[in-house]
Structure formats: C-alpha cells, structure tokens
Amino acid sequence: MAVVTELAAGLRSFSRAGVLLTETYGDDEIPPGGAGITMAPWANRVEDGQWLLDGKKQQLDITEVSRNNASHGLLRNTGYTPLGQSEHSVSLEATIFPQHGYPFLARHRVDYQLTEDLGLRVRQTLANDSAAPAPFVLGAHPYLRLGDTPVEDLVLTVAAGTRLVTDERLIPRSSAPVEGDADFRSGGRVADLAIDVALTDLRYEAGKARHVLAAADGSQVALWQDESCRYVHIYVSTVYPGRTRAVAVEPMTGPANAFNSGDGLRWLPAGESFSMEWGIDYVPATGRR
C-alpha cells in the first residue's frame, strides 16, 4: 500500500506484505526532513539562491536560511492536482509558474504505480511550456526502513565509485573516489554512519542502479533509479522524529548546485518533456517476492 500526498506529490508511506518500507509522518504534520517529497525544477541546493541565465543573475528565494541556499526546488510547499487514480496507481501534476529566479513555465507530473513483484514504480516528468529552453534537475527524497527492524542494525550498500566533496554549506567543490565512510560498495552498518553525501559513477545492471538496506535475516528494501539518474544522495539523519536514525536515499538527475556547476544539468527544449524513473523494491527474508 502506498499513501501519496497532494503536497509536493510526496510518498507519505509505502508498505508491502504488511512491512513498512519508508519512514512516515502524521496527517497534520509537515514532512519532516522533506520525507517523501518530489523535487523540481532542481534537487538539493542552489548556492545563495543565485545562478546566471544568459549572463544575467537570477535570484531564487532562500529557503534554507541556516546555509543561505535555495533548497529542494519550487514545489516543496505546493499542492499537486490529482489527474487520476486506480486501485494500483495515482497521477498528480503541478505547474511551475514563471517567477523571480526561474522565469519559465513548466509542469511537473508524478506517476506512482504498485507493481506485482512487491514494488513501487515512480515516474517524474517535466514538461516545458515556455518559449525557451529551461534548465532543470529532478529528484525525490524518500527515507527507507525495513519494518520494525531497528534502522541502526541495517546494512547500507551503494555501488558508487565517486563522491562529491562539499563545503560546510553542503555545496560540492570537488569530487573524489569513494573511500572510508563514503564507500558503501561492500556495505556499511547504519549505526556507524553519520553522512550527508552525494555519490555518482553508479553501477547499473539491466538499466537500473540499486541501493540496498539489508537486515541480518536476509530481508531487503532497495531503491532503484534508471540511467537518467546519475546521482544519489545519502543522508543518515539523527533528528527524524521518533527515530534514532533515518536513512534518506535520494535519486537525482543532478547534484546540488547544478545550476552553477553545470554538473548533471539538463536544458529542456521548449514544448518538450523529460522523464526519470525510480522505485522501491522489497525482498522478504525468504528471498521470494
């Protein structure tokens, strides 16, 4: 079962076979730590909320005041319009209107679908209704869990070869091969992790990169992303309400500050659209789905 919100087209909870696979929150609560929200037309952060368009400075609203950044796009506090739903799917859409810092007209659509193999598939589509190409990065912000198994006891595996090195404001300044606390290729116990890092050079198999949280009994929850998503952000929170640890696994088409660095940044031609896909899979302890 999936609970999807109109606010930010967010995934408030997802469970299969009676096992809760994402962190959740109450009906009357703001998504803590951006839990489950989708992000457009950028993911993560824009330094000082500033970037250049044809040589002219653009100024976005500062939404992460503590670090003076524009954070998590323009639709985090927007209600999406439901386009339709069935027993196993729902579609929502919101408009990004031209505004200071982003003078483009675009639509962000999110399609959720439960799959027969105990999974969830999500498609995010950006359509450019402007007369000029529009820059963008798409992303999502789910926190994974594995039922009632303490998150600290889970092992996180991410097959990534490169990490982005950030400053104190979490703005990437360089990149480096993964090593130490940022190397999850062989798995790392969540209790030992205190990280907020973007990873790239992901390993794709059959068109998907998979990031896995596994329990000692062999059960797993995995977030996968398609090849249009070349980055994943891993954040282990120690402030998620009611949890001593919470693990955000964020698929992104580009990293923080892409509007300035150009890394992962795409320009969507006028009248065209772009889609990315990601999803969550559950593997019970028996190994059978």
Could you give a short description of this structure?
The protein is mostly beta strands and 289 residues long. The protein is built from one helix and 26 strands.
Description of the molecule:
By secondary structure, this protein is mainly β. The chain has one domain: Beta-galactosidase, Chain A, domain 5 (Distorted Sandwich), CATH 2.70.98. The protein has one helix spanning 258-261, and strands at residues 2-4, 11-16, 19-20, 38-39, 45-47, 50-53, 56-59, 69-71, 81-85, 89-96, 106-114, 119-128, 134-136, 139-140, 143-144, 155-158, 160-166, 172-177, 188-189, 196-202, 208-214, 220-226, 231-237, 246-252, 266-268, 273-283. The protein has a nine-stranded antiparallel sheet with strand order 9-10-11-12-26-22-21-16-19, with no helix packed on it. A six-stranded antiparallel sheet has the order 15-24-23-20-17-18, with no helix packed on it. The protein has a three-stranded antiparallel sheet with strand order 1-2-3, with no helix packed on it. Strand 1 and strand 2 form a beta hairpin. It is globular. The model has no long low-confidence stretch (mean pLDDT 95).
Structural features:
9-stranded antiparallel β-sheet, 1% helix, Beta-galactosidase, Chain A, domain 5, globular, 289 residues, 1 helix, mainly beta
